[in-house]
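RECORD TYPE: inverse folding
INPUT: C-alpha cells
STRUCTURE:
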C-alpha cells in the first residue's frame, strides 16, 4: 500500500541531484507549461550549487513570463518528492499577507510526478504536506488550478479537500480553461 512506503518532501540538496538528473535525462520536466529538462540539465552540469540556489526565490528577483512580460518572482519554495529516489516536484508560492495571487500565477501550489511513480498516491500526499507548509507561511487556505481536462489532477485536489471556485481562461495557453479550487490548510496545532 502507498502509505507503507517511505515518502517525504525533501529540500533539494546535492545528495538528491543524481536521481533528479536521471529524471531530467528521460525528458521529464518539473514545469508543466514548458519543457525545462534540457535547461535544468545544463544548469546543474555548469554549477550545481547555483542551480540549487536558483530554486529558492530571492527578494527583488524577477522572471520572464511566456508572453515576455517580466514580473516579480513570488516568495515560496520547491520540495522534491522522495521515496528513496526522486519521485516528483511540488512548489508553493504566495504573496505575503494576502491569499490573493497576481493574474498570471496559476495557483499557490503546482506539482508533477515522474511517470514511473504515478498512481501511488504521491501527488496527494505531497499536496497535503505542502498545505502544512502554506499554513506555516500564514495561509488559512490556498487556491490550486488545473486544466479542465486534467481529471487526474482534479481528483488529487478534490481528495485533499479542494472545492471548485470558478473556471477561467488559462492566461498562458490560448483556448484552454482552468479550474480554480480552494483548499483549507489544516491547523497542525489542533
Ligand atoms: C497529476 C499527477 C501529479 C498525479 O500524480 P499521481 O501521484 O499519479 O496521483 P495519485 O497517485 O495521488 O492519484 C490521484 C488519484 O487519481 C487517480 N489516478 C491516477 N492516475 C490515474 C489514471 N491514469 N487514470 C485514472 N485515475 C488515475 C488515482 O487512482 C487517485 O485516485 P484515488 O485517490 O481515488 O485513488 C501526475 O499524473 C502528473 O504528474 N501529471 C503531469 C503533471 C500535472 O498534470 N500536474 C498537475 C498540474 S495542475
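DESIGNED SEQUENCE:
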Amino acid at each position: 500500500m502507498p502509505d507503507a512506503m517511505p515518502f517525504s518532501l525533501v529540500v533539494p540538496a546535492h545528495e538528491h541531484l543524481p536521481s533528479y538528473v536521471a529524471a531530467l535525462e528521460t525528458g521529464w520536466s518539473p514545469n508543466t507549461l514548458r519543457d525545462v529538462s534540457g535547461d535544468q540539465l545544463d544548469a546543474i552540469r555548469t554549477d550545481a550549487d547555483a542551480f540549487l540556489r536558483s530554486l529558492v526565490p530571492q527578494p527583488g528577483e524577477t522572471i520572464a513570463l511566456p508572453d515576455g512580460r517580466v514580473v516579480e518572482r513570488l516568495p515560496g519554495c520547491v520540495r522534491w518528492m522522495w521515496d528513496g529516489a526522486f519521485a516528483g516536484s511540488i512548489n508553493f508560492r504566495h504573496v505575503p499577507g494576502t491569499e490573493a495571487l497576481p493574474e498570471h500565477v496559476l495557483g499557490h501550489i503546482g506539482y508533477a510526478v515522474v511517470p514511473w511513480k504515478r498512481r501511488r498516491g504521491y501527488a496527494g500526499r505531497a499536496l497535503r504536506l505542502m498545505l502544512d507548509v502554506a499554513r506555516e507561511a500564514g495561509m488559512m487556505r490556498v487556491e490550486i488550478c488545473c486544466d479542465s481536462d486534467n481529471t487526474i489532477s482534479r481528483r488529487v485536489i478534490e481528495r485533499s479537500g479542494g472545492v471548485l471556485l470558478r473556471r477561467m481562461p488559462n492566461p498562458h495557453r490560448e483556448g484552454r480553461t482552468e479550474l480554480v479550487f480552494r483548499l483549507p490548510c489544516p491547523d497542525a496545532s489542533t
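NOTES: Helices lie at 17-25, 37-46, 48-54, 122-136, 151-159.
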